[in-house]
Amino acid sequence: MISAKVRVRKLEKTVKEPDKEELSACLLAVGAGKDVQAFEILFRHFGPKIRAFMLKRGGNRQQAEELMQETMMMIWNKAALFDPARGSVSSWVFTVARNVRIDAFRKTNRPEFDPNDPAFVPDPEPAADHVYESGQEAERLRGALIKLPPEQADLLRMSFYEEISHSAIAERTNLPLGTVKSRIRLAFSRLREILGDAA
Amino acid sequence: MNITHHISDELLFDYANGALEEGWSIAVATHLALCPACRKRLSAMEAAGGMMLEAIEIEPASGPTEDFSWEAMRARLDSAASASSVIAPAKRPSGKNVSLPEPLRSYIGGDVDAVKWKPLGLGAYHYPIKTSDQDISVRLLRIPAGKPVPEHTHGGRELTLVLKGSFSDISGRFGPGDFEETDETVDHQPIADPGEDCICLAVTDAPLKFKSRIVRMIQPLLGI
Question: Which residue among A68, A81, A108 places its CB closest to the CB of B87?
Answer without folding.
Answer: A81
